[in-house]
Amino acid sequence: MNLPHVSFWAAFHLLAVAVGLLLYVKRSRTVGRYRTPGSAFAWVLALIVLPYVALPMFYVFARRKQDHITALPWRSPQTNVAQGSDQLPRAIGLPPIRLAPTPQIYSVGSQALDALVHLIKSATKTIQFETFIFADDDSGTRVVDALVQAQNRGIKVQILVDELGNHPSMRKITQRMRDNHLDLKPFGKVRGLRSLATGNLRNHRKQVIVDGETLWCGGRNIANEYFDSVADNGWTDLTFTIQGELVDDAATVFQGDWDGTNASSAPFQTSNSSEQASHAVRLVPSGPDFKFDTQYELLLEMIGKAERRVWIATPYYVPDDTLQNAVTRARLRGADVQLLTPAKSNHGLADFARKRSLRDLHANQVVIHLLPFMSHAKLVIIDDVAICGSHNFDTRSLFLNYEMSVQFLDNRDVDVFARWYVDQVKVTTLADPQPPTLPMDLAEGLVRSLAYQL
């Protein structure tokens, strides 16, 4: 009596599985939709076992790239810089190496905020402001006051804040921006089914460009914790200001984010710094607007060639297996490999997901330094090159978010970052990960399967 009923639901299930797998294949065949083997297996298994739940989740969370990607129109450098092999970075869509005056690096939060406010107050023409979080607190108010004053002086101000980073507790300060007629755009609005599929791709870039001449950039959002001292319950972080041709590259990225396209930026204005531009740097943006996963590819190449050191500072350490293996192989080749990370970050799931990776590092004699406070700094030093900016060392940052960092290729700049790293290590304890129980190991595996979303 029930056989026809059973056959109907079996056929319905098989149809749902077929639709899910066809959608998976279609998305996977699109250029640039790389997934880790673990992620691919998890999606396929979910689409077979429970397609009714997995199919809508796949539609929302599995998209990684924009449908139409146009290479950004980087300008040719005014001065050619011979700095090792430039073939891979240029092939994956990164701008050329540029020359800049001495960058100013800020590890003290109050100094970073002072530099930002001073920069805004010094504007004579334009301010392009992009951030993930803009908090309704003392730091946010101070920055908004400076922006409003600039607007009143006739400065063209453009502000881009991620829609999810700008959650309800921050709506008061963004409303104040609008009340003062500041040109504010939320990035990545989720409105309706069409935008839901891209709503998981968040803008994590942090940059302020003034007059097309000076870039303020790094890991800091606009909120008190990023600028207060550790003694005042603040976090450690890294920010820098830089001038030169690289600022034009940053403006190109901002313009693409502002327009929602890959439009070119306004004409470049030469830096007014009197110092000779002699520091080699490169902008490293990544995200759904790039065909390749640029920061990920760059890290794989650099770590794969590392001879002396790989020093990583990150608040969240959840790499995929390929990047994890590159890190451990560098140690096996004899390089000095170290990880600097908070003992407890502000994201508990990310801390839980990293446990397997930390045990693997420890087993391969990688030194793991645990900070007794929250550090939001994102820094990788590989031999004589440093990369600093908004990129975390995790899969969401490397594969989903819109991010932006700067590659520093001058020993003078790398030494500054290295001294900061050594100073941080002085207050750490060494990690000694213990083997997990079976239930804990299963739970870790489940959380790691969601690592892209952490």
Description:
The protein is of the alpha/beta class and 454 residues long. It has three domains: 3-61; 96-281, Endonuclease, Chain A, CATH 3.30.870; 294-453, Endonuclease, Chain A (2-Layer Sandwich), CATH 3.30.870. Helices cover 41% and strands 19% of the residues. The chain has 17 helices and 18 strands. It has helices spanning 3-29, 37-49, 51-61, 87-91, 109-121, 138-152, 171-179, 192-196, 224-227, 246-259, 294-305, 321-332, 348-353, 355-363, 395-399, 411-425, 438-448; strands at 98-100, 104-106, 126-131, 156-162, 183-187, 207-210, 214-218, 239-243, 279-286, 309-313, 317-318, 336-342, 367-371, 379-382, 385-389, 393-394, 403-408, 429-430. The strands form three sheets. A nine-stranded mixed sheet has the order 1-9-17-15-14-10-12-13-18, sandwiched between helices. Strands 2-8-7-6-3-4-5 form a seven-stranded mixed sheet, sandwiched between helices. Strand 6 (207-210) and strand 7 (214-218) form a beta hairpin. Helix 5 (109-121) packs parallel to helix 6 (138-152). The longest helix is centred in the first third of the chain and has 27 residues, at 3-29. The model is unreliable at 261-271 (pLDDT under 50).
Number of domains: 3
Instruction: Give the total of beta strands.
Output: 18
Assign the CATH superfamily of the largest domain: Endonuclease Chain A
Overall pLDDT confidence = 86
What is the top-level CATH class of the largest domain?
Alpha Beta
What's the CATH architecture name of the largest domain? 2-Layer Sandwich
The name CATH uses for the topology of the largest domain is Endonuclease, Chain A
- What is the global morphology? globular
**Beta-strand fraction estimate:** 15-25%
Structural class: alpha/beta
Major β-sheet profile? 9 strands, mixed
* Distance linking N and C termini: 48 Å
